Recover the amino acids of this structure.
């Protein structure tokens, strides 16, 4: 069983489009995260939800909107995609904030 | 706020030798220090962690040491093998608050 899963694994799209990435965890964790990893491998936290409530919202363009329908899911919707949005996006979950994080396999987004 | 610096950014060692990656943190209240390994095409995975009430922790060929006075912690890998090649991340957190990540170290094991 996959602990943290993301779909799709690859996403190639044109500038200006709107796209969504889905994340699900079956670990029973309370906290979920979205990270962006650029070509230099730096992991940048974007958002964190605890019990479906937004607790971390770093400096991210408002074109990015997370949605948590329940504790097991945290989706990421991106409007008006730009070239600079090209990166690998990781979802992660943890039992609580600041605890061990379990990462999904990543979604490789390429904006053309 | 907390800041974590990680060095070196790239480390190349001969197979069988030891590798050491160092991180420093700024907030003395930090009390949890995990290390993650990211293999090519995969998400980061926890390999070892240490809490502030412990100075050293070992798991087979991997060890982490913590110096609270100097506010730094290190990852030690002995008898390196080709499968140790990856990007390694350190992180630090204050209880019940978010992890702050280092910038990563690319470890290359030369045959």
């Amino acid at each position: 069983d996959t602990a943290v899963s993301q779909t799709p694994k690859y996403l190639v799209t044109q500038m200006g489009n709107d796209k969504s990435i889905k994340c699900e965890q079956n670990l029973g964790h309370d906290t979920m995260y979205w990270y962006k990893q650029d070509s230099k491998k730096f992991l940048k936290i974007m958002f964190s939800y605890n019990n479906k409530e937004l607790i971390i919202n770093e400096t991210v363009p408002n074109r990015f909107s997370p949605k948590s329908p329940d504790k097991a899911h945290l989706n990421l919707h991106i409007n008006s995609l730009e070239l600079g949005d090209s990166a690998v996006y990781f979802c992660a979950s943890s039992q609580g904030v600041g605890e061990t994080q379990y990462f999904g396999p990543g979604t490789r987004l390429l904006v053309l | 706020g907390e800041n974590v610096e990680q060095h070196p950014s790239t480390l190349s060692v001969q197979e069988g030798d030891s590798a050491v990656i160092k991180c420093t943190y700024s907030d003395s209240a930090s009390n949890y220090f995990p290390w993650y390994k990211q293999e090519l095409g995969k998400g980061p995975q926890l390999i070892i962690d240490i809490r502030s009430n412990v100075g050293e922790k070992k798991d087979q060929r991997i060890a982490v040491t913590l110096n609270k006075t100097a506010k730094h912690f290190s990852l030690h890998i002995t008898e390196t093998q080709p499968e140790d090649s990856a990007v390694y991340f350190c992180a630090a957190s204050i209880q019940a608050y978010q992890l702050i990540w280092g910038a990563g170290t690319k470890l290359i094991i030369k045959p």
